[in-house]
């Protein structure tokens, strides 16, 4: 069924999108939009001006209280420093230049204060946008954000706000950026649905690690829904059901019961190894985006962290984190991984992970642009700060670091050179740091996969980023739902590249993992196993299911399957073969 043609069963409406994070949840809808309210100029009398100014004072006070509340919440959940954007917002809400301009305009134009305030804010934001200094240009967004909040308060309206939900809700929005998602209140955001997006966008990846159901790609649904409506969000089938009937609720209750029973049955596997029936042992490790996810590592049975995405520390803030702050967080990451190791990936900004305040101007093709290692190599100070902090995360011990988006050998050589400099600097300054550093390259650009034999001698491991490798191999933007059908991780070309990387790694005596979303998908376990990867890193929630899948498989059979799949003509054939293996080998996991 298409999202544009909802079927009506009594009052129930069903919208179909792309399932992005599994699970079913029911609750009230909270519609989140960046939409501006347009306030018309209502004429006032001169004598009303004091009253209007008084209303403005009250709205500013309320705004400051709200921002303070958000700050407190974020400081508690994300740590101090992460909420410094809201520090900047507080300054805007207390800005006397804006207040003075509003007063003058009120006296001059004699129209309602909400209109005057909106007008002043827009003019002020425009003057910021015209500034030379990229930092000041970025302030325009803060000014507009605060302005919107003040206008809502003046009108006595409630701004549906991601960060300050007051009841458990299912969020519906046109889009959610990874930065928005990082700020979600986990206790109150039960799930989310968006009009755009795809399964390997970082927003969807985060939903899976937050373990909340998500559906993306629900075209044109916003106009047909209202905030507060009761809904069921089905992250398995990719459905948003508005005003569900009693019958629908009952059916979903049954699904939930079955899911819980399977989950409970997997708990006993936590301390068992991921070994196939014929003895092939794999390492299953966890992908982590936010420090709050660290407690989940031990619970999931992960053998350490295979991908710590450091860029989330750099989003939603005015100033990048200092070396001390990063050291502190990486130490927590290393600590949470014990007795295993953590692979800390260097900054992968760009693509869909854009910081708000660091002057990364919008690009025509952000995934092909100034991203990840390209950005870091042009900012050696920033990069070395991070590398030093990583080396300091385990004084006297071993750390693992890896570089994202390597496309050329020169990039890898340059990154390793800066890593060497960072280590030397720490030694010279007598700062306690790791005695052993293992460096790895992410293989996620086809050019790297094709020269992998020339990269292998430089590193201690490879980690294949299948999310990007798929998008670059098939030239299909991973965040664009319009080309989602072309985004094929089991396309014979992608499988061929993975095989090539595994062979080169093993020929050079190094291990190779997969840390893209494929690794956490039970249908993909047989092919990754069969292609010979040594490690699979995934959102920790997925680990018990993937472990069960691996324990149910034969390595020998999976190798034969890989041979067959490598010579298949289409992705459709591969998909059918994988569904057949999953249904035969672990039917209880296949829903
Ligand atoms: C990948 O590309 O597969 C990967 C793991 O990195 P990210 O999803 O952060 O780009
Ligand atoms: Mg990647």
From TrEMBL:
Start and end of every PEP-utilising enzyme C-terminal domain?
A: 266-554
Phosphotransferase system enzyme I N-terminal domain residues are 17-139
- Record has NADP as a keyword: no
Binding-site list for phosphoenolpyruvate: 309, 345, 467-468, 478
Q: Which GO terms describe its molecular function?
A: kinase activity; metal ion binding; phosphoenolpyruvate-protein phosphotransferase activity
Question: Which sites are catalytic?
Answer: 202, 515
Report the locations given in the UniProt record.
Cytoplasm
Q: Which NCBIfam families match?
A: PTS_I_fam
Protein family membership: Belongs to the PEP-utilizing enzyme family.
Name the UniProt record assigns to this protein:
Phosphoenolpyruvate-protein phosphotransferase
